[in-house]
Amino acid sequence: MLDRTADAVRSVDAKTVKRWLDRHEILLVDVREAAEFEAEHIPGALLLPLSSFDAESFPVLPGRRIVLHCAIGKRSEAAGKMLLREGHLEVMHMAGGLRAWKEAGLPLEEAPEPPPAPAEAAPAFLCPAPGRVLADDYLGPLGISPARLAGRIGLDGGTLAGLIAGEVAVDAEMSLRLARYFSTEAGFWMRLQLEHDLEQARHRLGERIRREIRPHVSGG
């Protein structure tokens, strides 16, 4: 159910958001901070924290509506108002935020401190690689093949295939080329890469770094 109050960010209830997600009709954007997202998040949500939220260059996905959410609905409504001021016409946020989602008994992905995994087991990353975002949220919905995209943005087909497979990282030039073609903010693709790389590093080195390095204490 939608609240269509005039001149305000439209609110939508959690069960409607779940139904839209299941039908791949929306992009759900979580505006909480990274630590909150890592602790628990809605499967399929994209993290864009309010602390670094850039309404002027907010990415637009043709054919996909945007729904914002946070913990209780305050930050997502604030982000929605920022988008309205920048001229976005259809802005929605999830009423009650993650609290309402949990009260409705809807599924979450949680990240408790994991036990040591066997060396051969690959961790399940919360922050998707940019190649996955490109394939799932842009190429698939728009019906664009990787070969066609490579030709349109001037990239070698093997390089683009490597990006989609997670074997090639986004650099500054590639971010600019993708941003120009899909009308996203210039640094959007590099930020996806950075968040993914940081999470990989935390999985590989986080416990070791916590053991080896003590935080600086004034006078210590």
Describe this structure in words.
The structure is a single chain. By secondary structure, the protein is an alpha/beta fold. It has 2 domains: 2-110, Oxidized Rhodanese, domain 1 (3-Layer(aba) Sandwich); 130-212, 434 Repressor (Amino-terminal Domain) (Orthogonal Bundle). Helices cover 45% and strands 11% of the residues. The protein is built from 9 helices and 8 strands. Helix 5 (130-142) packs across helix 7 (157-164). The relative contact order is 0.12. The model has no long low-confidence stretch (mean pLDDT 85).
* Uncertain runs: none
Task: Please provide the ordered H/E string of secondary-structure elements.
Answer: EEHEHEEEHEHEHHHHH
Helix count equals 9
**Oligomer status:** single chain
Largest sheet data:
6 strands, mixed
CATH topology of the largest domain: Oxidized Rhodanese, domain 1
Structural class: alpha/beta
Mean of residue pLDDT? 85
Radius of gyration: 19 Å
Arrangement of strands in the largest sheet: 1-2-7-6-3-5
Short description:
The chain has 220 residues and is of the alpha/beta class.
